């Protein structure tokens, strides 16, 4: 695009294109999960009348996450909780009860990178606080969060929904994205459709969502 | 420039704060607290001034303070002056607010644990503005903890002198410094500001941090007093996008241009730019502008600047301490917007 080195960021339209590629690859390679959907952002109700609104975000909702005994997070699809033995559930403490997560990947115009927003709730609909969520995250992840200057979680307002959500901070994303691409892809500037796949390979495990290795390969 | 900064920093809103009736345990109920709140400050910071009025009448329990205006819980991280400009179409003096010490609406408002939460939010906004202006957060990240604290305290106390001293340590994080001393560095992006302005919004990235609060008013109203009250935050559109300034020879990028650039969904591309320079009045209601939204009201720091004002002047003179320009705008969109 330009002669100077890539700074690790992407434009709004590159994000939209990358989101589509990500969603398609996910559907193909992660059939056990529900698919990511693209939600058009309707910041102002009257925008709904404008067919040209391209701005939107990726949404994955009702993902059931159960913390198993060996401190790894197992994810299951809502409705398939029967995979887990009912007896096991009853004999364990509240930390292993299934929690449900909603994930939104939203573009930040200020930082020019994707940002992960999420929230969690119990099966009875009660929202989880930040502390409870951190207790469900993988042990590695909790450590990463504590020590890393790049990733930390705060409670902030969802950019579109006017409700408190958790946010994984974007400051520094462009730095590690740049490093990731240089190290892995051996190119100075990536094919932008792959941006989200690579981004998610780093971010996903922090919140307990793995990414199958096939997704990282070119189709 | 200094005068404008003083104007902004000295701006204050007289508040009359009533304790919510459900939390009054004494008869007669306590009188409301009268507080002068700095425009550039935040409501939770006023708590030390307010609490003494009500502490003897509160029910037992832990304080979880929140404010409300006519039933609308107030977002504590929006500067006080911005809340006032947005929610009071017809300025109410004093501004009557209700304070709650119990029953925090955590399904609606993010938690506020006192001054630290507000400070954290301020520093993050400062970083975001830094990133928008410079393409990185280095200026803020390299500030020592004590310098950051000094900067924050100058905001808490609305002390401009202290702020100027502290922000000099931000090392050209401000818009005008870039222009004054670094125009040689931004060779690729330097475009002289034509017309007006001894000060230019010359930033490394060519972008200005702006936060827009848009209220689509569906019914027409002549008098501000008739403006319908805002009963839910869902009715306000919050647009947090950097403003990219497009400079053209001989033309001035105005406040009006800025609003249109920030809201492309409203001010669509269907209008051909024939002589953009002569858009010097608010949108006319004839000819091609029939479908365009009408800006009913635009407020920044309590004033209503003319739409033809150069955006560079507005951004440099009316921004908040965290370097964001907060703009409240009431827009009326024609009901049948065809494409």
From TrEMBL, chain A:
Residues in the signal sequence: none
InterPro entries per record: Atg3/Atg10 (IPR007135)
Domain of life: Eukaryota
Family matches, as Gene3D superfamilies: 3.30.1460.50
Single GO molecular function: Atg12 conjugating enzyme activity
Transmembrane segments: 194-213
Name of this protein: Ubiquitin-like-conjugating enzyme ATG10
BP GO annotations: autophagosome assembly; autophagy of mitochondrion; protein modification by small protein conjugation
Family: Belongs to the ATG10 family.
GO cellular component term of the entry, any: cytosol
Protein keywords: Autophagy, Membrane, Transferase, Transmembrane, Transmembrane helix, Ubl conjugation pathway
Natural source organism: Linum tenue
From TrEMBL, chain B:
Compositionally biased spans, kind Polar residues: 278-288
Autophagy protein ATG5 UblA domain mapped to chain residues: 8-101
Subcellular locations according to the entry: Cytoplasm
GO BP annotations, alphabetical order: autophagy of mitochondrion; cellular response to nitrogen starvation; piecemeal microautophagy of the nucleus
Domain spans labelled Autophagy protein ATG5 UblB: 207-329
Pfam families noted in UniProt: ATG5_HBR, ATG5_UblA, ATG5_UblB
Limits of the Autophagy protein ATG5 alpha-helical bundle region domain: 115-171
Keywords: Autophagy, Cytoplasm, Isopeptide bond, Transport, Ubl conjugation
GO molecular function, one term: Atg8-family ligase activity
Region annotated Disordered, chain positions: 271-291
Superkingdom as given in the UniProt entry: Eukaryota
Any GO CC annotation of this UniProt entry: phagophore assembly site membrane
Entries under InterPro entries matching the protein: Atg5, ATG5_HBR, Atg5_HR, ATG5_UblA, Atg5_UblA_dom_sf, ATG5_UblB
Family the entry assigns: Belongs to the ATG5 family.
Quaternary structure and partners: Conjugated with ATG12.
Functional summary from the UniProt entry: Required for autophagy.
Name recorded for this polypeptide: Autophagy protein 5
